[in-house]
Write a structure and sequence with these properties.
By secondary structure, the chain is an alpha/beta fold. It has one domain: Rossmann fold (3-Layer(aba) Sandwich). The chain is built from twelve helices and eleven strands. The protein has an eleven-stranded mixed sheet with strand order 3-2-1-5-4-6-7-8-9-10-11, sandwiched between helices. Helix 6 runs parallel beside helix 7 (240-250). The model is unreliable at 1-17 and 361-373 (pLDDT under 50).
Length: 376
């Protein structure tokens, strides 16, 4: 296992490369006719800063809305986010913004309806810790493009500080935003033409998402009028014990909640040291206790440990592994005959190419025993 200082250095080095710079959401003057365009519709609890004409890291008083049109360069490779190092970006080589405008709630609804397509579905992405607003927008565009998702793409952007030192601030900011996330889902459910709302959460965004679903269950409408579709929890940065209690309260649902985990997720190893507890995204699923808990919770848990990815920290495999993000897209688009993803409840292991090896065998190793057991 990598020592904490080395992990922290890894995180710092990772954060320094490839992050979209401030000002990147300012539209460029020129475009590339061969580039693809993804329209990202945003609901955010961030405060708008008039001085920078952008959403900041501070917490806003309520929800604000935005639409950003992102140009994907012709040379784009699935799993990559080709952000420019300096402004303005080159549309032939970089992700760039072609349009950016503020929306009212009514305009937000209208944009969602406009982008629904034949499916009538919405994908809501809830980003994770240490994520700037512009980074979340570009990640949403990359996920939409690489997955081939057909429907409206909505980003829920909560006030992450976008700094490694902001872990505690981010955790409180995610909790601060749960009422607004629930309100956003209700707004979408009431939007004309919306038939299904899919949720994709990453890292600390899972804390926000699971807390919101727990809250909705207590209120008596966790399915949002029957419109909640797929719920995918990627690399959840949530205390495993807390996660287990919340998931059991939320209860089994159809389709089952899908959780993507990886035991070599170095970012979650740092989080574990900070919090002193195993994180759900690093859960061990290859033991009988874990398999029993997964079955009782009615979940699909997929172990991505062996999957190849461009991510050196193994924390963003869901978006940076072409095999994973394309498979997510097939599932969301209902292309089950070409999907390699499991559809039945249980724990599953993927090989390096992202193919299902089958339910894990009973393998007890040192990882299973750390901190009193990291099983589900």
């Amino acid at each position: 296992m990598i020592a904490a200082p080395a992990l922290a250095l890894c995180l710092i080095l990772s954060a320094c490369g490839g992050r979209p710079p401030p000002g990147i959401l300012t539209p460029v003057a020129q475009t590339d006719p061969q580039a693809k365009q993804v329209d990202v519709i945003v609901a955010t609890t961030r405060e708008f800063d008039p001085a920078t004409d952008a959403f900041s890291t501070k917490r806003g008083d309520g929800l604000l809305f935005q639409k950003v049109d992102v140009s994907i360069p012709p040379n784009h490779k699935d799993g990559a986010l080709e952000a420019p190092e300096e402004l303005p970006g080159d549309p032939s080589r970089n992700f760039v913004t072609t349009q950016n405008r503020d929306l009212s709630e009514a305009e937000f609804r209208a944009e969602v309806t406009k982008h629904l397509g034949k499916s009538g579905e919405v994908l809501v992405f809830i980003h994770g810790y240490n994520t700037t607003h512009q980074e979340a927008v570009f990640r949403m565009a990359q996920i939409t493009n690489d997955s081939g998702y057909r429907g409206a793409s909505v980003l829920f952007s909560w006030p992450s500080q976008g700094e490694l030192s902001g872990y505690l601030y981010d955790r409180e900011s995610s909790t601060y935003s749960r009422d607004q996330l629930e309100h956003t889902i209700h707004v979408l459910a009431a939007t004309p033409g919306v038939k299904k709302i899919n949720l994709l959460a990453h890292s600390m965004g899972n804390w926000l998402t699971v807390e919101m679903l727990r809250q909705a269950r207590i209120r008596g409408d966790v399915e949002f009028g029957g419109k909640l579709g797929q719920v995918i929890l990627a690399s959840p940065d949530v205390d495993l014990d807390v996660f287990r209690k919340d998931i059991f309260l939320i209860g089994p649902r159809k389709p089952p909640i899908v959780m993507l985990v990886s035991r070599n997720d170095y970012a979650l190893q740092v989080s574990e040291r900070l919090a002193g507890r195993v994180r759900a995204g690093a859960a061990v699923i290859d033991n009988p206790q874990a398999q029993k808990a997964i079955q009782q919770a009615g979940m699909i848990v997929i172990d991505m440990t062996k999957v190849d990815s461009n991510d050196a920290l193994n924390h963003s495999k869901f978006a940076e592994s072409p095999a994973i993000i394309q498979n997510i897209g097939r599932q969301l688009n209902g292309v089950q005959e070409k999907s390699n993803a499991p559809t039945s409840v249980g724990g599953f292991v993927l090989d390096a190419a992202g193919q299902v090896l089958g339910a894990p065998k009973t393998i007890f190793d040192t990882v299973t025993l750390r901190n009193g057991g990291g099983g589900m």
